[in-house]
Amino acid sequence: MRWLMQNMKKTKNISGSVSKAALLLLALALFGTVSAQDTLRTFGPRFGIDLARFLYLLADPSQKGAEISADFEIYRNIYPVFELGYNSISDSQDLFDYSSAGSYGRVGIDYNILPVKDRSVHHAITLGFRYGMSIFTHQIENVLIPGEYWGDYMPEAHENKLTGNWIELVGGLKTEVLPNFFLGWSVRYKVLLNPEMDPLMIPELIPGYGSGGEDRAFGFTYSIHYMIPLVKK
Amino acid sequence: MKFRILLFFILILATACIDVEICDEDYDSELVARFKTEKDGILSDTTVSALSLYGIREGLSDSLLYDSIPASGFVVPLDPHHDFSSFALQINGQSDTLTISYQHETYMISYTCGFASLFTIEDNIESNSGVIKSDTIINEMVDAEYEENEEHIWLSL
Q1: Do A100 and A207 contact (CB within 8 A), yes or no?
Q2: What's the rounded Cα separation, in Å, for the pair A57 and A64?
Q3: Cα distance between residue A49 and residue B140, in whole Å
Q4: Among B104, B140, B106, B148, CA closest to A146
Q5: N or C: which end of chain A has fewer CB within 10 A?
Q6: Which domains does chain A have, with CATH numbers?
Q7: What are the phi and psi torsion angles at B123 (to 5°)?
Q8: Which domain holds residue B52?
Q9: Over its length of 157 residues, how does chain B's per-residue pLDDT go in tens digits?
Q10: Which residues face A64 on adjacent strands?
Q11: Given A145, A151, A213, which is nearest B115 (Cβ)?
Q12: Could you give phi then psi for residue B124, rounded to 5 degrees?
């Protein structure tokens, strides 16, 4: 905790854009923070899984998904990031049934803005961007258009294979809670690049992005990561 | 401290501004027709003293949409089961049959409200007895959205 307080002061001096609220959340995450053993820094690929997907499942059982990520500190404080995931929704509305399922990938870079002199410390406050692409199929069935005069009309089922493209601005935290184990969260602001992908039906779920009805969207991840310690230098 | 209070109120306002979509229960895509008379090549609005009108429906009994009432035109739903709709009209005691052909598609109103019909009227509106002398398509797209002063066809009497 003393380490945290020291770094909180340094961060405030160097980066005025880091909010106190974010640091408070960082403090909440640091219930078991690892203290520095030596000044050598460990390098290796870091793999993560998004735990927030399981919370989403509790909030909305019609949506299922999983997401894994990988990053690596390729240069001081610069982390190329790869994220892969799967998302599906199966929903029954009053006047139609809808389903959408597919995979997505994101690629981008995170930059650690948390200044630490001790290079053995891996805690990070990151800003970054992503490019995301999703390939998915959505389907509508049992559509009913009520008609009082001519009678109800039931059009044929509609299925379309689509590709969604978007970009994201990402900000987040990662804390090393045990040697090589990290907890972290990120918030994301997403901009959909091709909203007019299906003229008949706006996708209710673009895997990895969210609702296709929104040209702008927010996202949240809460992840656990493990870094394979390959090199110390 | 002021910033924290401001942030608190912004968060309260942000959570209060959640959109709740309310769906219109009327999913009919309705054609709006206006009656016109022509004088010296100029069309002008007209009102008939008695209009009766019903759709010619396969396997269903006739059901009047207009029952001998003064009207400057009519608003009728189109048949999504066929690529045309036929209507029997009686204007000031004279009978006619109006057949309107179209291409039919469905479109999504919204995820909450579902789907509706979109008709694209074709330029071959037929009437068989001469009560309606000519027709003009003003807007070929007939959908389920209500727009004030919307007109799709003019019928010259």
Answers
A1: yes
A2: 6
A3: 53
A4: B106
A5: C
A6: 44-110+126-228 (2.40.160.70)
A7: -85, 55
A8: 28-156
A9: 555 555 555 555 455 455 566 777 678 899 999 999 988 878 889 999 999 999 998 888 888 899 989 999 999 999 999 999 999 999 988 898 999 999 999 998 888 888 999 999 998 888 888 888 888 999 999 998 878 888 999 998 8
A10: A88
A11: A145
A12: -145, 50
Q: How far is CA B118 from CA A19, A66, A139, A178, in A?
A: 51, 38, 20, 60
CA A225 to chain centre: 13
The number of domains in chain B is 1
Q: Which residue has the tokens 């493990």?
A: A226
Q: Of A5, A168, A223, A174, which is closest to residue A73 (Cα–Cα)?
A: A174
For residue B6, tell me if it sits in a domain. Answer: no
- Asked whether residue B114 is domain-assigned, the answer is yes
**Contacting residues of B for A201, CB less than 8 Å apart:** 108
- The ipTM assigned to this model is 0.80
Is B85:B76 a contact under the CB 8 Å cutoff? yes
Decide if B48 is inside a domain: yes
The reply to whether residue B80 touches residue A146, judged by beta carbons under 8 angstroms, is: no
Query: Is the CB of A145 less than 8 angstroms away from the CB of B117?
Result: yes
Helix %, strand %, coil % of chain A (to 5): 15, 50, 35
